[in-house]
From TrEMBL:
GO terms for molecular function: metal ion binding; NADH pyrophosphatase activity; RNA NAD-cap (NMN-forming) hydrolase activity. It comes from Rhodococcus erythropolis (strain PR4 / NBRC 100887). SUPFAM superfamilies: Nudix (SSF55811). InterPro entries: NAD-cap_RNA_hydrolase_NudC, NADH_PPase-like_N, NudC-like_C, NUDIX_hydrolase-like_dom_sf, NUDIX_hydrolase_CS, NUDIX_hydrolase_dom. Residues 158-286 form the Nudix hydrolase domain. The gene is nudC. Gene3D superfamilies: 3.90.79.20, Nucleoside Triphosphate Pyrophosphohydrolase. This is NAD(+) diphosphatase. GO terms for biological process: NAD+ catabolic process; NADP+ catabolic process.
Amino acid sequence: MSVNDFQLTETPLLSRSSVGRAEELRSDAAALTTGWADALLLRVNSRGQVKVSPEGQLVFAEAPELGPEPVRGAVFLGIRENRHVWAVRVSLLAGTLSELRMLGGTLDDADAGLLTGAVAILNWHDSAGFSAIDGAPSEPTMSGWSRISTSTGHEEFPRTDPAVICLVHDGGDRVLLARQPTWPQRRFSILAGFVEAGESLETCVVREIKEEVGIDVHSVRYLGSQPWPFPRSVMLGFAAIGDPAAPLLFADGEIAEGTWFTKDEVRAALELGDWGSEADAPLLLPGSISIARGMLESWVK
């Protein structure tokens, strides 16, 4: 395989869900009430934190503790090992807490998928309390997977914002990494941006790279995707080829610094850990739950 044809070597950590969503049950009130009797409940506070065990695993509550049937605001996540699983937003949460950015790499496939889905859908509900069409208050329905306007009955579904993330390389040994103005020195990642209305993903890649660092790219290829519920995005991974001789221009203010790094430099940075490393090194890279890291790991092999 040539360097131009590299693929993701592993499934992104937040894309590993192994729990069936059982969407056919979302409007089946009788089945949901029956399943509620022994359902698991994932409580998520407003900061996206959940209760974890001393071993760092998710701690589920028993759903019937909230009442004999599904409560308003709870979201049906699916079925795990023959038990229904629900998520609910809470204001207070006691015990040892953690959140998806910290837990994503340590959870099994089922829990990683459940927590990712819970955070994403609850974030949407937090910002969707009023209809985007008529401005009236809206109420959750379909066991949390849609909302209905209390004025017109207009139904709205969870919003996910698509964003492209692109590994720009030179077709050989170098990759372009950049740092946003708010990031500390030495912390770099690959380039990303939101898809605009009426825009294809490939066109977005070319536009975003040009806007952020001023260079033209070609040979745009899709690699894979990952949900990114911060607050409610999906990251669509691409690779593209650019010219290291082209001048870098940071015209839109979103990038403070950009540099071409070699494979050896990226390998050394990956061995140091992630952005949290205290190593005195010129390059630190994103953590394991980011698709950016998986793309870089795949590229250097």
